[in-house]
Write a structure and sequence with these properties.
It is a single chain. The chain is mostly helical and about 160 residues long. The protein has six helices and two strands, in the order αααββααα. About 30% of the residues are buried. The longest helix is centred in the first third of the chain and has 19 residues. Strands 1-2 form a two-stranded antiparallel sheet.
């Protein structure tokens, strides 16, 4: 066990929206420390969303992120020689982090030209309650629901 909790790092807000969540998203999306490239991809995706939907792109991104965040997850636990999948609640910060990672992962897997197009398509789909990230969330919730009988093994 740790003796004390580590200090939380303060994430600076991004230049366009002034939102630290956007910076966190860009940090997850970044490869090889290329933050400027990741920021440009994100802002291009937001411009594409604004152009196609004629709605507030930042609000749509927030809605997509909310739709992709899981509430529960299953964790493996070995009890008496058998391994059980135990459903557990997720901390708020972990929910956000997982939601962001899923949005980025499934936008990378999409077909299309350029990461900005793929990200825009995934965000628009997730805002509607469709897309790979939302499907992953639903699958996770189904798995937790089917293993609810083992919830009493929770640590």
């Amino acid at each position: 066990m740790r003796k004390r909790k580590p200090k939380l790092r303060v994430i600076q807000p991004d230049p366009r929206y002034g939102d630290p969540m956007v910076t966190q998203f860009v940090n997850h999306m970044m490869w090889q420390g290329k933050k400027t490239v990741a920021l440009r991809i994100f802002y291009d995706a937001m411009d594409i969303i604004k152009e196609r939907t004629k709605q507030d792109e930042h609000a749509m991104w927030k809605k997509a992120l909310n739709n992709a965040m899981p509430q529960v997850e299953v964790r493996s636990r070995r009890i008496g020689g058998a391994t059980f999948q135990i459903p557990t609640e997720i901390r708020a910060k972990r929910k956000v982090s997982i939601g962001m990672k899923w949005l980025i992962k499934f936008s990378r897997q999409r077909s299309g030209k350029g990461m900005a197009d793929k990200l825009a398509a995934e965000v628009m789909a997730a805002a509607k309650g469709e897309g790979g990230a939302v499907k992953r969330k639903e699958d996770t919730h189904k798995m937790a629901e089917s293993n609810r009988a083992f919830a009493h093994f929770r640590v």
